[in-house]
Amino acid sequence: MSKHIVRRLLAAASLALPCAAMAAGYPDKMIKIVVPVPAGGAADTLARLAGEGVQKKWGQPVVVENRAGANGNIGGEAVYRAEPDGYTFLVSPPTAIAINQSFYKKLAYDPNRFVPVSIIAANPNVLLVHPKVPAKTLQELIAYAKANPGKLNFASGGTGSTPHLAGELLKMMAGIDMVHIPYKGGPPAYSDLMAGQVDVMFQGLATALPQIREGKLRVLAIGGEKRHPALPDVPTLNETMPGFISVSWTGMVAPPGTPADVVAKVSAAIREELMVNGAGKEIKGLDARDLIASSPAEAERFIKEEVARWGKVIHSTGISID
């Protein structure tokens, strides 16, 4: 072997050593988890549970920082520009990870370059109507909307949110016209649905299940690939409109360039805490079957599917924010 080749091999090995050494001694200082939405929501709760698990396992402090605003872009950009040393992570709903790159004409960061760590949880969205709406099935809702174009409205927690895009997908696939009513957050939109101020809304099953069981809201269909054990008699939208999938999920990603062995170590710790040690049971209303704590590879595949799914809806409908 020539001396030139030997020098090149030694140089490559020396570059790999810092990453390996860091993974071996990781973590040795505080870890920060950025959540790009206000405190109190599902992403915030899951971030704190994941953080508690990591802190318990390694004895290093974990701080959760809420950096809300611009549909998740403020927090997303902060993590994107952070040092890729395994001490800063983003825990977010789909917007900052899988939607905004299609929704905004310009972004100050590239979500596609994040390093996936884990899909922590995923909860199917359900299609809800207020009882005043004269439809008890998805087919009846579609028929009513076609007979009364523009009469029905549907609420969401904001333009570009998963419930908004699910409503746009329903309009597109069913060929109906409904008016979108965006709110500043999911809770006020959901409150107005229960009050009958709006007609239709997609909402995560974990949130909606109590009101469904009490008869305050009517569920017409579920957005998961399969029927859910909590509502076994409710059909999926996929049964009527093949390919219609809509879930609310929370994922963890790291800045571009974060070493894969560190990412794998963090992902395994989260899975151990939520799935083995049972911390996920603390999440009120979230069915244990909806906890995932996936591997980085599984998270990468899932995120790519979501990017493609909602990118198609956004580009087909022409909705965007400058």
From TrEMBL:
InterPro entries per UniProt: BUG, Bug_dom1
Pfam families noted in UniProt: TctC
Signal sequence interval, chain numbering: 1-23
Keywords: Receptor, Signal
UniProt similarity note: Belongs to the UPF0065 (bug) family.
PANTHER family found in the cross-reference section: BLR1237 PROTEIN, TRICARBOXYLATE-BINDING PROTEIN
Protein name: Tripartite tricarboxylate transporter family receptor
Protein species of origin: Pigmentiphaga humi
